[in-house]
C-alpha cells in the first residue's frame, strides 16, 4: 500500500497513513471515522501503524462493523471486560527496539446479527478511551457504498472525539449517483439536483461533487464542529484514479483548507502528481 498527502500543489508520498494525515498521539487520542468507502480499512491500518509504534489501541464502533476474523476481539457491552483483557494480554513497548513495534490492538463491541459487532453503550465507550493510548471509532455506516451524505441522526460522533476522518472511495467517480452514493436524496439536496420526469436523478458523480460532499457541514463534515478534520481518498489504484484523487484533494484544500490523504494498492511508485491551484 502507498500513501500520499496533498501538499498545496501536488501529492507527496508518505511512509505511513498516520504521517499522511499529520496526526499526533498527544492531540488525537480519540479518532472517529465517517463517510463512505474504506472506513474500516483506514481504521485498522491506523491501528496497526500505532501498534508498530508500541501503542495500545482499541477499535470500536458507535454503529456497526463486521466482526474481524483475524483480530483480538472482546464481545461485551462492558468496558471492564476490555480492561480485563488488556490487563492479561497487552504487550509493553520494547524500548530496546528502534520502532518499539510491539503494541496491542483490541476490538471491542457487542455481538449483533449478520456477523457484525454493534456499539457499546456510549457511557461504556467513554471508558474505553481511558484504557488505550488511542481509541479508533467507526462512527458511520454507508452500506459498503463509496461515498455518503448523512441522514438524520448520522454520524454518531462521541462528544470527546478529538479528530474526525472523512472517507470516500474513488470508484464512485463517474458513477450514477443513485448507484454509488448512500442517501441519494440527501446528496441530491446538497448538490442542488432535480429529479428527471422518470423520477430518477440522472447524474454522474464528478470530482467536484466529491469535494463538495467531503467538505460540507451537510456532508461528510457533518457534526465535526470545532474538532480537527481530515479526509482520506481511497482506491487510487491506477494512474487515472490517482490523477482524480489529486483533483479532489486540490479542490478540498481550496474549499476548506482540510488535510487530505490518498491511499492506493499499486506495487510500483508513481511520479508525483501535480495540479495548479
Provide an overview of this structure:
The protein has helices at residues 17-20, 39-52, 79-89, 122-128, 177-180, 184-191, 207-215, 239-256; strands at residues 2-6, 11-14, 30-35, 56-61, 64-66, 73-75, 104-112, 116-118, 134-138, 147-148, 163-169, 181-182, 228-234, 259-264. The protein is an alpha/beta fold. The protein has a single domain (2-264), classed as Rossmann fold, CATH 3.40.50. Strands 1, 2, 3, 4, 5, 6, 7, 8, 9, 11, 13 and 14 form a twelve-stranded mixed β-sheet that branches. β1 and β2 form a beta hairpin. α3 (79-89) packs parallel to α4 and α7 (207-215) packs across α8 (239-256). The protein is globular. Residues 95-100 and 270-277 have low confidence and may be disordered. GO terms for molecular function: ATP binding.
Which terms summarize this structure?
alpha/beta; 12-stranded mixed sheet; 27% helix; two-stranded parallel ribbon; 277 residues; Rossmann fold; disordered C terminus; single chain; 8 helices
CATH topology: Rossmann fold
Number of structural domains: 1
Number of E-state strands: 14
* CATH architecture label: 3-Layer(aba) Sandwich
GO molecular function: ATP binding
Protein name: Selenium-dependent hydroxylase accessory protein YqeC
Amino acid at each position: 500500500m502507498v500513501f500520499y498527502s496533498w501538499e498545496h500543489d501536488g501529492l507527496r508520498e508518505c511512509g505511513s497513513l498516520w504521517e499522511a494525515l499529520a496526526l499526533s498521539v498527544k492531540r488525537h487520542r480519540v479518532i472517529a471515522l465517517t463517510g463512505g468507502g474504506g472506513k474500516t480499512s483506514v481504521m485498522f491500518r491506523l491501528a496497526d501503524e500505532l501498534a508498530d509504534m508500541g501503542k495500545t489501541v482499541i477499535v470500536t464502533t458507535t454503529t456497526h462493523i463486521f466482526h474481524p476474523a483475524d483480530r483480538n476481539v472482546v464481545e461485551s457491552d462492558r468496558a471492564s471486560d476490555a480492561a480485563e483483557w488488556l490487563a492479561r494480554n497487552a504487550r509493553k513497548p520494547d524500548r530496546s527496539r528502534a520502532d518499539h513495534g510491539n503494541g496491542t490492538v483490541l476490538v471491542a463491541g457487542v455481538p449483533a446479527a449478520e456477523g457484525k459487532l454493534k456499539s457499546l453503550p456510549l457511557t461504556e465507550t467513554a471508558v474505553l478511551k481511558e484504557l488505550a493510548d488511542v481509541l479508533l471509532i467507526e462512527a458511520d455506516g454507508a452500506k459498503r457504498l463509496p461515498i455518503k451524505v448523512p441522514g438524520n441522526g448520522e454520524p454518531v460522533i462521541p462528544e470527546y472525539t478529538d479528530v474526525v476522518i472523512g472517507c470516500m472511495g474513488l470508484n464512485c467517480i463517474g458513477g450514477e449517483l443513485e448507484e454509488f452514493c448512500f442517501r441519494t436524496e440527501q446528496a441530491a439536496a446538497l448538490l442542488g439536483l432535480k429529479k428527471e420526469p422518470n423520477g430518477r436523478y440522472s447524474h454522474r458523480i464528478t470530482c467536484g461533487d466529491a469535494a463538495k460532499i467531503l467538505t460540507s457541514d451537510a456532508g461528510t463534515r457533518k457534526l465535526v464542529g470545532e474538532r480537527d478534520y481530515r479526509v482520506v481518498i481511497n482506491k487510487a489504484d491506477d494512474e487515472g484514479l490517482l490523477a482524480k484523487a489529486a483533483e479532489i484533494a486540490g479542490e478540498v484544500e481550496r474549499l476548506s483548507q482540510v488535510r487530505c490523504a490518498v491511499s492506493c494498492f499499486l506495487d510500483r511508485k508513481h511520479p508525483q502528481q501535480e495540479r495548479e491551484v
